[in-house]
Structures are given as C-alpha cells and as structure tokens.
Amino acid sequence: MRTYFENINADFTCKHCGAVVSARQGLSGVVNRNHCPYCLHSRHLDLFEAGDRLSACKALMAPVGLTLKKSRDKYAKQSGGELMLVHLCSGCERISINRIAADDDPKKVLEMFEKGLGEMRGFIMRCERENIHILQTGDRWLVHSRLFGSDFIERKEEMEILMTI
Ligand SMILES: [Zn+2]
Ligand SMILES: [Zn+2]
After folding, report:
1. What is the pLDDT of residues 27-77, one digit of tens each?
2. Residues in contact with 18: Cβ distance below 8 Å, sequence separation at least 6, in sequence order
3. What residues are neighbours of ligand 2 (ion), with CB under 5 Å?
4. What pLDDT sits at residue 156?
5. Is residue 4 part of a domain?
6. Considering every ligand atom, which ligand is closest to the CA of 56?
7. Is 6 within the bounds of a domain?
8. Distance in angstroms (rounded) separating the CA atoms of residues 153 and 66
9. Could you say which ligand is closest to the alpha carbon of residue 12?
10. Which of 41, 60, 147, 153 has its CA 20 to 30 A from that of 51?
11. What is the number of structural domains in the chain?
C-alpha cells in the first residue's frame, strides 16, 4: 500500500481488479498515473491538486463518463479539447477529471462510455451544475475518433469489430 512518503510514481496494485500497475511515465505518458489501465478505476488520494496525495478519503473512484478538457482559448471549438475520464468517488462522491493515459485500454474506455449512456441523469445534472459536460450519445462519433482515430490503420480491424456490435 502506498503512503504519503512513497514516491507517487511507484507501481501499485489496483484495488478494484487486482492488477499490478506500472506508474512509469514512459508507458502511461502521464506524470501522475492515478488509475488502472485495465479497469480504469482510481483511488481518492489527492486533495487539492493531482499528485498531492493528501486526501484522507482513499476510497475507490469508479470511471463513470467522459468529458472534454476545457480549452484556455475561449474561441476554441468545444469539441477541440482532449478527451478526459470522469471519476466518481464511492466514498465521498467527489468528482475528478483525469487524463486518459497512453496505455489505458481504449476498448475499456469505450465500454465504460457506452455503459454510462442514458443511465446517469442525476449525475449528469450535477456535473452540469459543476460546469462539467458529460459526453452523451450524440458525442459517440467524437469519442470513437478520439480513441481509435489517430492510428486508424493499425486499429482498423478493432474498429470494424466495434462497429458491428
Ligand atoms: Zn484495475
Ligand atoms: Zn472520496
């Protein structure tokens, strides 16, 4: 188990699926690897900012949806932002927004997104109040292209499989 005194980039065991997660930046592409790439669950460890590890909560945070990172440029199109994971804490219901890491399983991300559609009315309304726009059915194409579009040639087969489901 990690403590305040350990390196925040140390490998850890996922509290949800039990996988051993490597926190090396080379694999994840992110500085603070804060969720499991296999099941996308996280833990409520940070209090004020990413990586501070000051939260007393420590409960499991479930991936519940996707949003787009807000651009600092107010003229940028809303669809231009980076795709982000939305986590909800099972202990204190805090919402947190996290970058998708390079080694996160895109099929899991898509699966989580699809599963959340249409069954989170109350949560979506809460997010809107907190100025977080949860992506919906109408954003499906955007989500697909962000997850599978950049290296489309290699992922073409996976894409075709997904499209037939
Ligand atoms: Zn996991
Ligand atoms: Zn919490």
Report:
1. 666 666 789 999 999 999 988 887 788 999 999 999 999 999 876 665 555
2. none
3. 44, 57, 59, 89, 91-92, 94
4. 54
5. no
6. 2
7. no
8. 24
9. 1
10. 147
11. 1
